[in-house]
């Protein structure tokens, strides 16, 4: 009924006193520049269009928004399997170490620790002692070269 009421008001006012005014550019005046609808930069971007296209395709297929593409799911599954396989191999390698290899590893770690401690002690020594040690090394090297 409200639509018919509006048409009755239109009929009663034929003098052009319409509630809505008509835009000037519809008159066909060639001097006026017709406005163009502004483009939304987000919707105009390629990534947005591709995402929208993918969403439409997923909707047509009946897939949910949360579901991942098949390729991504397969790649994640492969990565997960690879990580699990690597962890298993590392655990097996640790289990297969013989007592001899374990002892060698301990000794190697102790030697590294001793070398670090020696370097710390050398860093705290006065400079003239360091220079003196370097001189001794060079003198023994040149003495060995003369003997050979």
From TrEMBL:
<keyword id="KW-0009">Actin-binding</keyword>
<keyword id="KW-0206">Cytoskeleton</keyword>
<dbReference type="GO" id="GO:0045202">
    <property type="term" value="C:synapse"/>
</dbReference>
<feature type="compositionally biased region" description="Basic and acidic residues">
    <location>
        <begin position="109"/>
        <end position="136"/>
    </location>
</feature>
<keyword id="KW-0963">Cytoplasm</keyword>
<dbReference type="GO" id="GO:0005886">
    <property type="term" value="C:plasma membrane"/>
</dbReference>
<keyword id="KW-1003">Cell membrane</keyword>
<dbReference type="Pfam" id="PF06625">
    <property type="entry name" value="DUF1151"/>
</dbReference>
<keyword id="KW-0539">Nucleus</keyword>
<keyword id="KW-0965">Cell junction</keyword>
<keyword id="KW-0131">Cell cycle</keyword>
<dbReference type="GO" id="GO:0001725">
    <property type="term" value="C:stress fiber"/>
</dbReference>
<keyword id="KW-0770">Synapse</keyword>
<protein>
    <recommendedName>
        <fullName>Actin-associated protein FAM107A</fullName>
    </recommendedName>
</protein>
<keyword id="KW-0966">Cell projection</keyword>
<keyword id="KW-0341">Growth regulation</keyword>
<dbReference type="GO" id="GO:0030041">
    <property type="term" value="P:actin filament polymerization"/>
</dbReference>
<dbReference type="GO" id="GO:0043005">
    <property type="term" value="C:neuron projection"/>
</dbReference>
<dbReference type="GO" id="GO:0051017">
    <property type="term" value="P:actin filament bundle assembly"/>
</dbReference>
<dbReference type="GO" id="GO:0005634">
    <property type="term" value="C:nucleus"/>
</dbReference>
<keyword id="KW-0175">Coiled coil</keyword>
<dbReference type="GO" id="GO:0003779">
    <property type="term" value="F:actin binding"/>
</dbReference>
<keyword id="KW-0472">Membrane</keyword>
<dbReference type="InterPro" id="IPR009533">
    <property type="entry name" value="FAM107"/>
</dbReference>
<dbReference type="GO" id="GO:0005925">
    <property type="term" value="C:focal adhesion"/>
</dbReference>
<keyword id="KW-0346">Stress response</keyword>
<dbReference type="GO" id="GO:0032956">
    <property type="term" value="P:regulation of actin cytoskeleton organization"/>
</dbReference>
<feature type="region of interest" description="Disordered">
    <location>
        <begin position="109"/>
        <end position="148"/>
    </location>
</feature>
<comment type="function">
    <text>Stress-inducible actin-binding protein that plays a role in synaptic and cognitive functions by modulating actin filamentous (F-actin) dynamics. Mediates polymerization of globular actin to F-actin. Also binds to, stabilizes and bundles F-actin. Involved in synaptic function by regulating neurite outgrowth in an actin-dependent manner and for the acquisition of hippocampus-dependent cognitive function, such as learning and long-term memory.</text>
</comment>
